[in-house]
Amino acid sequence: MLCALLFLLLFVPKNVELARILGIFHEKSFSHQTLGTKLLFALASKNHDVTMLTTVAPKSPPNNFAVIKINLQGHATDSGGDLFQMYNYNVFQLLGTVNSIELQWTEAVLADTNVQQLLLANKTFDVVIMEQLGNHALKGFCHFYNAHCIMLSTMGSTYLTDEQMGNSYNPSYVPYRFLNYPPQMNFYQRLHNSFVILISSLYFHWVSLPQHNAIMQKYFPNAPSLNDLMYNVSLMLVNSHYSTSIPVANVPNVVEIGGFHIDPPKNLSHEIQKYLDSATDGAIYFSMGSILKSKLMDKQKIQNILNVFGKLKQKIVWKFEDDSVDLPMNVRIVKWVSQTDILAHPNVRAFVTHGGLLSTTEAIYFGIPIVGIPVFADQNFNIALAKHLGYGVSVPYSSLDEKTFGTALNMVLNNKTFKDIALQRSKIFHDQPMSPLDRAMFWIEHCIKHNGTSHLRSIALDLRWYQYSMLDIMLSLLFSISVISMIIWKLFKTLFRQKIFKIKKE
């Protein structure tokens, strides 16, 4: 008994209050589920009581980890093929399509039988953690349980995450996530970037937010307006790091944890390990991620890629869902493989990727230069940034042919600068005082211990939009200048008339 008491005194962490945590991760793609599961498993390892609402039940959950399965039939990303058509959408098509998908997601989550049973059960939660991805009505959970709301932005910082936290989002050097502009934009790019952000903001406030509010009020009838709940966020965890993104000034409760999902590499299968070990001239890994299916690419584009690969002396591992394709001798198809384990292999010299944030982060983690084939969402932005920083080349899906792809791949393979920059960025990423996952744990538990983060909340959130933009000040100054100018003009006219009258009289 005495030994057990001594163990508790010595080894149990002090000043850490255990919390009941509800995690909501509805996006069923592998990358999004990886982030949610990693974060919630880490909290469970610290003895917090964790419940996860998810479309994909994680394997081997801990004892203090409950899983509630959500059934999302007709999920927008199930088809996969349609996403290859989004590369040429304009901003209005993109906003409408994405908003429609997000509304379907949110309604399906709240209407799910298991979710309704949870809401009817007499359960309490201290913290609600959810993904920041068009699921605004789900903030009703935070109100329903009177819990602290913590968001995880899987795409890094966006204008919506910044607006919720009172963070600065300057369109002069922060490109919109769905554009392919670098941080150093020319006049036209800054003009277009500002226009797109303005349109997106107006669309969100006038179209999307009212629709989400209607859904929230339907399932949480006593909740306040979503216009208020949107800004009642204790902590915003963003999947970014200054080594892989644009350095910006964040308010204290916006915390960068990019790369927290990466585990130390494990052993590859014997077949793939032997194949890569034998790649004396180097190897290339090609993957379009977990949502996009390579087999659904345009057939001519697939053939163009294979033609380029067949001319190389490097060996290629391609994550491809159809093994009936006629392949060159140096190409090996795998239907699924651990991406980080392959990128960790010393013979891998280039990574051909769709440009998802997890993929570009993993490329930097292991110091691998990339050839990006962006298709939709933030992929254009991520690849444009890689090109700007010097560790990648962009081949947009719309312009992918044998010449453009071959030129880009040979450039990355034969120009040592790309590898050097990728390695330098990798050193910057690894030079951190604590791991990204430990940083996430610290700030979540900081929120728990101090009953929220009101002490970190930006005063900017108390201002009206016109006050924050200083429009009232500028209008007031403009009005004052106009009045003074008018008075001066009237005096001048009066004096001038008097002078003319006097001259005429004389």
TrEMBL record:
> What domain of life does the UniProt record list for this protein's source?
Eukaryota
Cellular location(s): Membrane
Can you tell me where the transmembrane regions are? Answer: 465-492
Q: Which PROSITE patterns match?
A: UDPGT (PS00375)
Catalytic activity, EC: 2.4.1.17
Reaction(s) catalysed (UniProt annotation): glucuronate acceptor + UDP-alpha-D-glucuronate = acceptor beta-D-glucuronoside + UDP + H(+)
Q: Where is the signal peptide?
A: 1-18
Coiled-coil stretches are none
Q: Which GO terms describe its cellular component?
A: membrane
- Pfam families named among the record's database cross-references: UDPGT
In its keyword annotation, does this UniProt entry include Transmembrane helix?
yes
Q: Which UniProt keywords apply?
A: Glycosyltransferase, Membrane, Signal, Transferase, Transmembrane, Transmembrane helix
According to its UniProt record, this protein's enzyme class is: transferase
By its UniProt entry, which InterPro entries does this protein fall under? UDP-glycosyltransferase (IPR050271), UDP_glucos_trans (IPR002213), UDP_glycos_trans_CS (IPR035595)
What CDD domains does the database record attribute to this sequence? GT1_Gtf-like
Record family assignment: Belongs to the UDP-glycosyltransferase family.
Q: What is this protein called?
A: UDP-glucuronosyltransferase
According to its UniProt entry, this protein's organism is: Aquatica leii
